[in-house]
Amino acid sequence: MIRVAAALAAALCLAVLLAGCGSDRRQVKLIYAGSLIVPFDKLAAGFEKEHPGVDVLTESHGSIQVLRHVTELGDRMDFVATADEQLIPPLMYDRRDPATGRPWASWYCTFATNRMVLAVSPKSPLADQLTSKTWYRRLIDPDVRFGLADPRFDAAGYRALMVLQLAERQYRDPYLFEDMVMGRFTTPITVERSGGVDVIEVPEILETTPGSNIVLRGASIQLVALLESGDLDCAFEYESVARQHGLEYVRLPAAIDLGEEKDRENYRTVEVKLDSRRFASVRPVFRGDLIRYAFTIPENAPDPGLARAFAAFLLGPEAQRIFAADHQPTLTPPELDDPGAAPEEVRRACAQTR
Amino acid sequence: MRLRAVAALVVAAVTGVAALAVACGSGGQASPSPAASGPVVLTVKGEKGSRTFTLNQLEALPSYEGYAGIKSSTGVITVPSKYKGVPLADLAAMVGGISKANGVTIVAKDGYGMTFSYRQIMENGFTTYDPATGAEEPPSGKLHVVIAYENDGKPLGPDDGPLKLAVAEDTPSQVVDGHWAIKWLDEISVTRASADWKVQLQGAVPGEITRASYVNCASPGCHGSGWIDGQGRRWEGVPLYLVCGLVDDHKTHDKGAYNTRLAKQGYPIQIESVGGKVVTIDSRSIAGRDDVILSSKLDGGELPDEYFPLRLVGPGLSQAQMPGGIARIVVRVR
Prior knowledge:
- The complex is a heterodimer of chains A (354) and B (334).
- Chain A has 354 residues and is α/β, with parallel strands linked by helices.
- Chain A has helices spanning 2-20, 37-50, 63-71, 88-93, 135-138, 155-170, 176-181, 220-229, 239-244, 264-267, 304-314, 317-325, 344-352, and strands at residues 26-33, 54-61, 79-82, 109-113, 116-120, 146-149, 190-194, 197-202, 214-217, 234-238, 248-251, 270-274, 285-287, 292-296, 330-336.
- Chain A has two domains: 25-113 and 291-352, Periplasmic binding protein-like II (D-Maltodextrin-Binding Protein, domain 2); 116-287, D-Maltodextrin-Binding Protein, domain 2, CATH 3.40.190.
- Chain A is 35% helix and 22% strand.
- In chain A, strand 1 (26-33), helix 2 (37-50) and strand 2 (54-61) form a beta-alpha-beta unit.
- The longest helix of chain A is centred in the N-terminal third of the chain and has 19 residues, at 2-20.
- Residues 1-22 of chain A have low confidence and may be disordered.
- Chain B is an alpha+beta fold and 334 residues long.
- In chain B, strands 3, 4, 7, 8, 9, 10, 11 and 12 form an eight-stranded mixed beta sheet that branches.
- Mean pLDDT of chain B is 84; it is low at 1-36.
- Chains A and B meet through helix 1, strand 2, strand 7 and helix 8 of A and helix 1, helix 2, strand 5, strand 6 and strand 23 of B.
């Protein structure tokens, strides 16, 4: 199998290199959150179709890592999209490209939303017991194996912890969070109240105990395969990801699923603090809020003209159709945090998306 | 196409492709420059001091050579290739070693840091994947966490070197999650369980006890108490019932903080240790008892690692009911 992969690799490299030799094809490099993989694959194809002579190169990671590739690892990207708009100002506005002395970015456009759900394995014998009324009690049961993205690496992970803490108040069960996590991790995840905010503290080493019913993986997308295989009964996922993979899911109350504008203040009563120094540039504290995806164009984009064209394409009708078909909710109209700093093409596209 | 996929595939591709790339000027990879021999490239800190190493010094240490590859968070596989380096455990041993009470923090030049557990370093504690399919599978052999300085017989170049953390094994049969493969590595710190400990309390109200507050509270003139076990050892600390009084109702301090009425009605007290063990005690069995204590001292000194920072002790409790390493106490009043 490895040999086959290597041969395919060689052939692919050859094709790529030959395509690049002596041609004047342009490239636009996109980097984005893992939960956007399915629609962005189609966006890339759609953009290439509209722009013959352009190759779209794509790469995806957890949202923090997406930004870090641009600001710390020196990867020159044309277009950046993250699952959490809150990450862009501290990581890109407040820090400067040492080559130019300018901030990495000066505006962002919020273009999509989502909500957290409890995705259920089609092979789970407990599937019919996981309902919107019972899920939170069932997760305490040691027989129910549930998946959690690692909050140290994935926004879906820290958002899942927020959901669990918000559920404690929603269901008026003051020990719910403790019941979910107690005895499940070798170093506990704890909660303390500070200034009216429940602060969830994630330890530096996060490992499940032997026999724990929680399955921890580096990214929520890794949990999908375990749901499909039946190794998990359920897992916290974005609704769009669950639907893209044809998974059944439990819809959580709006007050806790981080997906309703009217409940935004409630979401803000939880916070996740990482006892970790994973990134020099990230203060690892995440405040509960509505899930809002945002994109920007880095100041050092290799082809900013093409990046602006892709941004306009993403906000246009063809992309909106792709997002809708892939169950990825978009924000209508999209919002610019600083219209004066955004490029004209993006401003115009935002204005037309109504 | 995916950039990382292409990067991984380039590694696997045949030499002719690379030659073609150079020939047509599309930016073939430059060969890695030789590692510098003089400057310090690694600092290792532990309980018994710190050591620094030049590349030459690292290369002179006993090494491990094996195969390491990664799976990115979105499933892209970088197939295993051969790495050579110094086992992390060997380096840690030079500054005091590691135990289950330690974490090992690896920091890169760009500030990226990850903390590894004892289980990861010593007991194969990684999720492993088949590099051909990306499917999860149990580790097929011993995993070695090494500080690598060589890949496929060449020094690591500026893209990820001169030092990189690799999780390697004898055969190229598995890969681990990419976030463990730290490039541009320059510091290793072996850290003990935090000296400034904190124990989470949960009850009718949330609370916590910290080292500083506990030292005050456990003084003999305040709420300090003690118990001498069957071996003549003196355990000192604060009675458990008084700690429950901090969170059993909304009166958290001063006289009457401990709600005797509630305690006599009975409620479970769950005590969770580092490691995830949970012991449940009935409030009626400890109500008003000064000799069932959360001890922070043994024979006048700090608790040993296995019990640090607090251990529940007292007459009538079995060994199983005397957990150490206490991290959280839940007082389940209704």
